[in-house]
Amino acid sequence: MEHDLKCPECGCEHVYPDGSLWTCPECGCEWNPKDNTAGAADGPGEIRDANGNVLADGDSVTVIKDLKIKGASSVIKGGIKVKGIRLVDGTDGHNIACKIAGIGAINLKSEFVRKA
Q: SUPFAM superfamilies this protein is in (predicted)?
């Protein structure tokens, strides 16, 4: 092969390009080798959705289940599509910052969304 890339998670040598990212067929890891600086991550690091897909700033996601909002009587219904997310380093596990119509600015946990 003409590349010597290995998967940063499992070390598999059978990685292949998929658009601007490289993909590992064994563990499903996706990464950009230009952003990979010896394992050092800028910002919040790699954030994955409920299905294991890597999320990025500006992605659109869909909420997968009804979520109660702490301190409010409203609920975020499952199936709502949220556009233009921002990834943040949330210490409480809320690693997605977004705006939802009818609710406003809110932080979500990536485990309750899937990439749209």
A: Prokaryotic SH3-related domain, Zinc beta-ribbon
Q: Is residue 54 a contact partner of residue 46, using CB atoms and an 8 Å limit?
A: yes
Residue 115 contacts by C-beta under 8 Å, 6 or more apart in sequence?
A: 49, 51, 53, 55, 59, 60, 61
Distance (Å, rounded) from C-alpha 34 to C-alpha 62? 29
Residue 116 contacts residue 58 (beta carbons within 8 Å): no
Rounded Cα distance between 22 and 5, Å, is 9
Tens of pLDDT, residues 40-55? 444 446 889 999 999 9
- The set of residues, in sequence order, having a beta carbon less than 8 Å from that of 101 and lying 6+ positions away, is none
Specify the pTM: 0.60
